[in-house]
Every structure is written in structure tokens, then in C-alpha cells.
């Protein structure tokens, strides 16, 4: 048990303390003293040096793998790092870098099969006549519907068969086909189509299903010698779209997990809510925490602020650290900490190593062992408004270091 707070021990002997150095204040003083040396010798690293948050309780130095959040190397992170700088091999159909793969394909409200089909087509990997001939596969490369050269642009837009399919599409206003010169432009224009209400597919996109159904009709013509009319093709597209959307509506929604509720069973347990407010421009943070106890209605609060804070996650961790020190100084033995940073709470509870929180996380866990009972919980932001207000007010009073 700590009988005298660390804050009192760091006071000079003349003021009733023992003259112990407060490591953070001492570190700041040394940095201020040596700032001129840093600017002269390592000016390009001044910002990084000032943002170093060393452990106050002896966390060992260690190497960190920067591409990984945890700082620990994994084959997966190594693989993605190795391919990051590799130039993409040339494509048969060049794809401009500004194409929005996420919005125009992967986030479409359609089946994974059709998303993959669109992606494959965009990448020039669909086995149409032109692509087969490019790969030196013996084929006439002719469209099965009209006999013209089969390209993706022709098959899905300019062929008379495709033209009749699009003309029959149940949409409010169809795009101008004469102004579309590539499959990419078709994707970008077709996503703006609005289906008519009788379709029964709501705001779901119709164009992926139309393109997919044209492909199905093409394959049936080639491999089964079956002729599917444009009207049957568009009917199939609407039917497939409706069937898939109805299946999504009937699926039970996945439960939303926001973490265990903050339940204080022991009346003697002190509840502590913490929060941090971080300024990216100033690289500074304000911290706020409030203690409460339902048994005797205890309410105490604390605030602090500091500079050279590199991220909001680090700021949240420092807020918890300050609250723990304050709780120890006040003599609390049973404590329940709540923070609205889910990432921080998960790191504390799992004791997961992380390069960003290496020193501060070690100190939080070390201080936690001095309490008889302690727990850490995630709380939604709306339940953390008092601590949030304290942190923001503390940040407002921050005065930047003179340069």
C-alpha cells in the first residue's frame, strides 16, 4: 500500500518531500535543455524525439516491426510490405489508377459472385474472343450473337443483342450508349441507373445483374446452342436481383457487440470514467477523469494536459494512466475504469503488445497490480460525456511550447 503519494515524494525536502525526480518532468526538462543540440545535430528527427513516451516504471526496450500495429512481425504483414512497392504487371486492358474499385465494384449491393465477375471483366480476364486471341488461344473471336469481333465493350453494350437488353431494362432513364467507349465507362454510368418500383429491388443496383445475365445468355448460346431472347435475359436479371435481395432481408441481423456493460456489483468499488481530447494541429492532448461511488455518492474529478502527443490512442492511454495515479494517491483499493476507446481497453485486457503504447501500457499494467481489485471496461461515447467535457476544457487551456 502506498502511504505517501508520488507527487508528494517528488517535492523538494524543503517542501516536505524527499526530492525524488518526477521522471516525466525531468525528461521534459532535459529535452528542453538539449533541444538546441537536437536541432543542430538531428533536426529531421526533432519531432519524433520529442514525442517519445518512455516508460516510468522500467519497461524494457525492444525492437518493433513498424508495418504491424502490435510491433510484432508476422508473415502476413511481411508479405504486404514486400508487395507494396512492386509495380503492377501490364494488363491487356490498362486500368486507370483513378478507378474506384471499392465504390464501383466491391461495395455494390449485389452478390459476391457478380462482384467478382465485374472485377474479372475490368481486369481483362473474361474469356471473350478478344482476350482469348490475345492469349494465343485458337478461336475466331466472334460474337455469338452478331458475328462481330467479341470484346467486353461490344458484348455488353454495342452488340444488337446487348442493345435490346438495355432498352428493355426497367429503369427511369437509360444512359446514352453512343457516349460510352469502354467497359469501365459502362460500369460508371450504369451505377447511376434507378430501377422502377415494380421491379421489387428497391434501391439495389440492377446493372450488375444485367451484365451477368448477358454473359449467361452468351454462354448458353455457345455451349448449349440455346437462344435466349433479350426479353428473357432482362427478366432473368430482375429475377436474380430480387431473389438475392430478398435473401439478404430474410437473414437475421448480426448482433452488435460493443463490449461488456460497466456493472459495479461491489458498493465499495469506485467507478472511474476517463477520456482524452487530442489536437492534431498542436500535437497536444487534454485529459479528464471522474470518480464516483454509489455507496456514499463520492464524486471527484481530475484533469491534466501535455504536449508532443502523437496520436489520439496514446492520449487515451495517458488519461487512464493519470487516473490510476490519482486513484492510488486518493487511497482507492477497488477500482473500475471505463474508457470510450475500445482499442485501448482491448489492449489492456488482453495485455497485447503494441508499438504505439509500449511504455505507457507497461506502466498501466504495473500500477494496476497495486490495487486490490481493478477492471477495465469499454463504455459508449454517450455514456462518457462528463469525462469528455473535462478533457476538452483542459485542452482548451493548453498553451503551446515557445519555439
Keywords:
single chain, 403 residues, alpha/beta, Nucleotidyltransferase, domain 5, 3 domains, five-stranded mixed β-sheet, 10% strand
What does this 3D model show about the protein?
The chain is an alpha/beta fold and 403 residues long. The chain has three domains: 6-50, no CATH class; 101-249, no CATH class; 270-396, Nucleotidyltransferase, domain 5, CATH 3.30.420. Helix content is 42%, strand content 10%. The protein has helices at 6-9, 23-33, 35-41, 46-50, 75-83, 101-106, 112-122, 129-134, 152-158, 160-167, 183-190, 207-223, 230-250, 312-329, 342-350, 358-368, 385-396, and strands spanning 270-279, 284-293, 298-307, 334-339, 373-378. It has a five-stranded mixed sheet with strand order 3-2-1-4-5, with helices on both faces. Helix 10 (160-167) packs across helix 13 (230-250) and helix 12 crosses helix 13. The longest helix has 21 residues, at 230-250. The protein is elongated. 28% of the residues are buried.
SS element count, helices: 17
CA distance, first residue to last residue: 42 Å
SS strand fraction: 5-15%
- Domain count: the total is 3
Quick one: biggest sheet?
A: 5 strands, mixed
Shape, please? elongated
Please state the structural category: alpha/beta
Number of strands: 5
Instruction: Supply Rg.
Output: 32 Å
Q: Percent of residues in helical segments?
A: 40-55%
Q: Whole-number average pLDDT?
A: 82
Order of secondary-structure elements: HHHHHHHHHHHHHEEEHEHHEH
Adjacency order of strands in the biggest sheet: 3-2-1-4-5
Low-confidence stretches: 86-93, 256-262
